[in-house]
Amino acid sequence: xxxxxxxxxxxxxxxxxxxxxxxxxxxxxxxxxxxxxxxxxxxxxxxxxxxxxxxxxxxxxxxxxxxxxxxxxxxxxxxxxxxxxxxxxxxxxxxxxxxxxxxxxxxxxxxxxxxxxxxxxxxxxxxxxxxxxxxxxxxxxxxxxxxxxxxxxxxxxxxxxxxxxxxxxxxxxxxxxxxxxxxxxxxxxxxxxxxxxxxxxxxxxxxxxxxxxxxxxxxxxxxxxxxxxxxxxxxxxxxxxxxxxxxxxxxxxxxxxxxxxxxxxxxxxxxxxxxxxxxxxxxxxxxxxxxxxxxxxxxxxxxxxxxxxxxxxxxxxxxxxxxxxxxxxxxxxxxxxxx
Length: 339
What we know:
By secondary structure, the chain is an alpha+beta fold.
C-alpha cells in the first residue's frame, strides 16, 4: 500500500509505511458516523509491551492490545480506562497436512490427543487473567446461534484429560519422531507465553518434558514466509478474526480445499461438498445447518485444535472518553472524544 485512500469520516493526511498513518477529520463526510475528534495518528509497534509503557508514560492515548504480561497490572494501572470485551476471534493450532506424518491413517487420534493434553482453563486463567475463554467449537460465541455458533461442539476433545490424551496418541502411532514442535511468531500477541504454557501442559500430560518444544520465529513476516513455503515441522500458531458474523467465514477460508487461508492444506471431500451445498442454498437457516454439518467434519478430523475465544482489549489515557471496541476488536475511532 503506497497511496492509501479513505472513504469514511477521515482523510489520510500522511502515511509512512511500517511506521505511522495520520488521519484527519473530513468535515464534508456525508455519513451519520461523523468523527467526534479532529483526527487519529495510528502508530505501528512491534512490541505491545512498548506500546503499553508509552501509554502509561503519556506518549500514547490508546493501546488496542494489552499484552499478557500486563494483564495482572492493568486494572491497577488504568482503572476504568481499560476495556475487555468479547470479539469474533479464535486462537487455534493448525497442522501441516502436506507432511505425511500429520496426514496418515490414525493421525486424527494424535491431533485429538494433543488437544486433550492442553489445559485451556489453566492457561486462560493464569496467562490471560480470564480475559480469554476456552474454546468449545471452531467459530465464536459472538456469532450467536443465529450465526451458526455451536457451544460445546468439540466435546471431550477440547477438555483436559491427560490419561485419555496419552492413550489416543499411542493409538494413533505416537508423536511423529517422538516429539512435537509448535512454531509461532515472537514479535506480537504474547504468543511466546501461551505457546510455552501449551507445551508445558502437553509435557505434563504425557509425562515427558521433551514431548513438546516451542519454536519462535522472529517476525510475523518471516513466520508467514515459512508457512507459505510449507516449512512447518509440526503444529503452528493460527487463528481467525472474522470478516463478517457468520459461521461460513470461520470455516470456508480456513478448511476448504486450497482456500485462501488454508495454511495447513487440509482437504476433505465431505467438508467441501457440504460447503458447496450451503453456498447454493437460498434459505439462510438451511445454509447455516449445512455449514454446521461441515464443522462437525472439522471436529471429527481435528483439522485444527481450537484453543480459546479471544476478547478485544484496550487501554486509554485520561484525555479520552467514549472508547469502545467493535465486534472485530477494533476501536470505534470516530466515536472517541478528546478533552
